[in-house]
Write a structure and sequence with these properties.
23% helix; alpha/beta; 399 residues; six-stranded antiparallel beta barrel; 18 strands; globular
Length: 399
């Protein structure tokens, strides 16, 4: 009886299995990257350039076409018999994977075609392996470009098509390795005609990266940068080592009309929100102009409407988290994943940033609060991430 079903004579999964063993870079279904070069961006920042395989190019073309500045990749790296997954920011744009050009890089755009470059701060097992130990030509599995820390997430996209409005001025604030998602964002913003100001806090000398900012400044007169070496007082804004209201005001920007992108440590982002509150204490507009990407638990907002960040100085009532499948429980007055680890309970996790989704599990009952968005959950069954939620009541997890 004809029903339209046509079984595959050779299963795609079998072809993929055999092909991957004959040639690890080859795959019908899995996006892969092959390491072809490393470059030093600064004293503590390394760029890794990869060739993309056919699956990556085909799937990326179908899903999104070109990736955007500010996006990242989830890499799956095999080290000593164990797979690790980590997230790394993409440098540059799809059509311009390397935005810096010097004696160590080729200006031939054909050489850059079908490549993607990420920036890594060597710290931790996986980052040290990628930047120092992994041989050239090594192959890793990857996600497609991910993330919403892009120009499209603001009102910018609407204003660019208007004949009556100038592109929104942009302020980029970065701390340490928080500069990595900014690299592609700034290039894209400048090419779109935006007035761009960069504020970069760092504990190290920026060397090559500082040279690149100078080149951009010469190429785009509407690009301004301030590099604050936190150990060098002569570089401070308004005489203050850390981000402050006085420092923001000293930039002489129309802050109420400026889109602010920020990425960095908890302390940096806490200072930004505190400064925004001091500048517009009765108006939420400046706070609403801030778009954040963070490398940790930076935006807790434990109290509705507050500008506080989650740290030990904020009183959080202690509650019990019960793991139904394991029949174990622990007390929590902090992020659920951290509380579990403090109680010697191991929960699945990856990036600890709310990005990779490896910590996601089902909440059976209880109320939790997302420290990044401030959203309070319902008290019923739903999916949550333990690395970015705190318990607001006793909670039961299906773990």
């Amino acid at each position: 009886m004809a029903n339209g079903y046509r079984p595959e004579i050779i299963q795609r999964a079998f072809v993929h299995f055999i092909g991957a063993r004959l040639h690890p870079f080859w795959s019908l279904t899995t996006p892969k990257l092959r390491l072809i070069a490393r470059y030093t961006l600064s004293d503590d920042l390394i760029a890794l350039r990869f060739e993309t395989n056919r699956a990556f190019k085909q799937q990326n073309s179908k899903v999104m076409g070109d990736w955007q500045g500010g996006q990242y990749l989830d890499l799956r790296v095999f080290i000593d018999g164990v797979y690790y997954q980590r997230s790394y920011s993409i440098v540059g744009l799809d059509h311009q994977p390397l935005w810096w050009l010097d004696d160590t890089t080729s200006s031939n755009t054909a050489d850059q075609r079908h490549t993607v470059t990420i920036a890594i701060k060597p710290q931790g097992l996986v980052s040290d392996y990628l930047t120092k130990q992994m041989p050239l030509a090594s192959v890793v599995d990857t996600s497609l470009p991910l993330g919403h820390f892009t120009l499209e997430q603001t009102s910018i996209a609407v204003q660019e098509g208007s004949d009556n409005k100038q592109p929104t001025p942009l302020l980029f604030i970065a701390g340490g390795s928080g500069i990595t998602p900014m690299l592609g964002l700034i290039t894209q913003a400048l090419s779109n005609g935006h007035h761009v100001t960069l504020l970069h806090y760092s504990r190290t000398v920026l060397s090559k990266l500082q040279h690149q900012w100078q080149q951009l400044n010469e190429a785009y007169p509407y690009f301004t940068y301030h590099l604050i070496h936190t150990e060098e007082p002569t570089t401070y804004l308004a005489g203050t080592r850390y981000l402050s209201a006085e420092g923001l005001l000293s930039l002489n920007l129309p802050l109420s009309d400026t889109q602010i992108f920020a990425c960095g440590s908890q302390a940096l982002l806490a200072g930004l929100y505190k400064a925004a509150a001091e500048i517009t204490p009765t108006d939420e507009q400046l706070r609403d102009n801030i778009l954040v990407e963070n490398f940790g638990h930076a935006l807790a907002n434990v109290d509705n409407g507050s500008n506080q960040t989650f740290d030990k100085t904020i009183p959080v009532e202690e509650h019990t988290v019960y793991l139904r499948s394991r029949q174990r429980q622990f007390s929590s007055d902090t992020i659920i994943l951290v509380a579990a680890e403090n109680a010697d309970v191991r929960l699945a996790h990856g990036c600890r940033q709310g990005i990779c989704q490896l910590c996601r599990c089902n909440k059976v009952s209880g109320v939790v609060k997302n420290i990044q968005t401030g959203k309070v959950s319902g008290d019923g069954y739903e999916s949550i991430q333990t690395c970015i939620n705190i318990a607001m009541t006793d909670v039961v997890l299906d773990v």
